[in-house]
């Protein structure tokens, strides 16, 4: 289980699409991530960026194999505009 509790994001502005995401989980090398929980997250002044970025990926430069899956993610925090998630 991955558990993120009491995180504060006061300002974030990222123009590189590859690096976007305040809270990013990227699985590769035949791994999987599951049972991920975000609780008491405070988000202020986020511009031009995704707050969450979840990827099952493969990179010829960094990975030996692609990831398997990401499952069971929960978020308990303030309202977030779904278009920037």
**What is the helix/strand order?**
EEEEEEE
Helix content: under 10%
Q: Which percent band covers the strand fraction?
A: over 45%
Largest sheet: 3 strands, parallel
Average pLDDT level: 78
Multimerization status:
single chain
Structural class: mainly beta
* Number of separate helices: 0
Largest sheet strand order = 1-4-7
Spatial separation of the terminal alpha carbons: 21 Å
- Tell me how many strands there are: 7
Low-confidence segments: none
Radius of gyration: 14 Å
Q: What descriptive keywords fit this protein?
A:
85 residues, mainly beta, two-stranded parallel ribbon
Topology:
Elements: E1 2-9, E2 12-13, E3 23-27, E4 32-43, E5 46-47, E6 52-56, E7 69-76
Parallel strand pairs: 1-4, 2-5, 3-6, 4-7
Q: Care to describe what's here?
A:
The chain has 85 residues and is an all-beta fold. It is built from no helices and 7 strands. The two termini are 21 Å apart.
Summarize the structure.
The chain is mostly beta strands.
